[in-house]
């Protein structure tokens, strides 16, 4: 867990409720069980679905793709697509499911996404993105936001980001979430696109200076809550992805350090205990323990016994019929004084 070094200033947007801390949409990770777990750790964080394409929502298993539990609010669905009519229809379906907002993905650089003409490649066609935003704004009453990069490939980052922002805002986009890196659509994998293009937080701050009235949220390369709060400057929010997923302990600090509220639980142990009824309900409905505990592997990171905790969940939770006893056994590896003392002496765990 990070140290409480940096906190939001009491005169910041957080006091009026406009400043946000968000957990980024991440494919294969931010499913409904992940979000339920994260909500246990923070009442105030904004949570996102994995990206879901508009055609999948229209033609696929909607309950599987969009279903979520009431405590997850506030929760945002991220859509992928570039057909205004399909996005509008998908947006209406998302509203029927009860989502708080809809976000359009204009930042994912993967080949699969590019092949479908959505994601970061849409940075090259801001007019089309604006038409998509307009179609969704006409179809639904909830906010429509856009998550983008500062540019792609050889684009000039000043011109590209300004062009996209101006066009989508002219059609009613309610908020911009900017990953402060370019995306290179040829030659770099999605993982490399998260690491190799240099970060440029100042470019996002310049956008905010030009569009002071527009809510703008910073994303990209923020490894700790301290980093996020330090870099947020004049912005209206920060979004963490893998840092929050891989070190979920930091979410326990969000409510206090970002919003000045009490943490929902005293510590990670109390949070796991509070989460047990959700796990039990999933098991009773025929679900597997691993469906949930795969999202909990990063909890207790760096503490004596953490390696045993992770190993227990990663192996025993996969066994057919595994129940709450496996989760409790894993947590007990952190709690046992004799194990903690031994781990601290040998340095073989954690």
Automatic annotation (TrEMBL):
A Pfam family reported for this protein in Swiss-Prot or TrEMBL: Dus
Gene3D superfamilies: 1.20.120.1460, Aldolase class I
EC number: 1.3.1.91
Residues with site note (Interacts with tRNA): 105, 191, 194, 307, 310
Catalytic reaction list: 5,6-dihydrouridine(20) in tRNA + NADP(+) = uridine(20) in tRNA + NADPH + H(+); 5,6-dihydrouridine(20a) in tRNA + NADP(+) = uridine(20a) in tRNA + NADPH + H(+); 5,6-dihydrouridine(20a) in tRNA + NAD(+) = uridine(20a) in tRNA + NADH + H(+); 5,6-dihydrouridine(20) in tRNA + NAD(+) = uridine(20) in tRNA + NADH + H(+)
Co-factor(s): FMN
Residue intervals of the DUS-like FMN-binding domain: 23-316
Assigned keywords, A-Z: Flavoprotein, FMN, NADP, Nucleotide-binding, Oxidoreductase, RNA-binding, tRNA processing, tRNA-binding
GO MF term list: flavin adenine dinucleotide binding; FMN binding; tRNA binding; tRNA-dihydrouridine20 synthase activity
Active site: 108 (proton donor)
Binding site for FMN: 25-27, 78, 147, 179, 219-221, 241-242
Function: Catalyzes the synthesis of 5,6-dihydrouridine (D), a modified base found in the D-loop of most tRNAs, via the reduction of the C5-C6 double bond in target uridines. Specifically modifies U20 and U20a in tRNAs.
Assigned protein family: Belongs to the dus family. Belongs to the Dus family. DusA subfamily.
Protein name (database record): tRNA-dihydrouridine(20/20a) synthase
């Amino acid at each position: 867990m990070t140290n409480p070094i940096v906190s939001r200033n009491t005169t910041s947007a957080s006091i009026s409720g406009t400043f946000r801390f968000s957990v980024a949409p991440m494919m294969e990770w931010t499913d409904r069980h992940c979000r339920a777990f994260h909500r246990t750790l923070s009442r105030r964080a904004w949570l996102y679905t994995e990206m879901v394409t508009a055609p999948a929502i229209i033609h696929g298993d909607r309950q599987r793709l969009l279903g979520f539990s009431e405590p997850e609010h506030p929760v945002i669905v991220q859509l992928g697509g570039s057909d205004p009519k399909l996005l509008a229809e998908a947006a209406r379906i998302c509203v029927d499911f009860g989502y708080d907002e809809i976000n359009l993905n204009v930042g994912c650089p993967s080949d699969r996404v590019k092949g479908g003409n959505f994601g970061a490649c849409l940075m090259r066609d801001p007019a089309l993105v604006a038409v998509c935003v307009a179609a969704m704004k006409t179809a639904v009453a909830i906010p429509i936001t856009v998550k983008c990069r500062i540019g792609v490939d050889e684009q000039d980052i000043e011109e590209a980001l300004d062009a996209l922002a101006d066009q989508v805002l002219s059609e009613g986009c309610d908020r911009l979430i900017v990953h402060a890196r370019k995306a290179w659509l040829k030659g770099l994998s999605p993982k490399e696109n998260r690491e190799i293009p240099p970060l440029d937080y100042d470019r996002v701050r310049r956008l905010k200076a030009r569009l002071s009235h527009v809510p703008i949220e910073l994303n990209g390369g923020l490894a700790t809550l301290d980093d996020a709060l330090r870099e947020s400057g004049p912005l209206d929010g920060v979004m963490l992805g893998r840092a929050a997923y891989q070190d979920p302990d930091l979410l326990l600090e969000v409510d206090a350090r970002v919003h000045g509220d009490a943490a929902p639980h005293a510590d990670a142990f109390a949070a796991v205990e509070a989460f047990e009824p959700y796990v039990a309900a999933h098991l009773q409905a025929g679900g597997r323990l691993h469906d949930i505990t795969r999202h909990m592997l990063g909890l207790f990171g760096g503490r004596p016994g953490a390696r045993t905790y992770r190993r227990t969940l990663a192996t025993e939770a996969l066994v057919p019929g595994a129940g709450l006893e496996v989760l409790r056994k894993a947590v007990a590896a952190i709690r046992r004084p004799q194990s903690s003392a031994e781990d601290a002496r040998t340095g073989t765990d954690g």
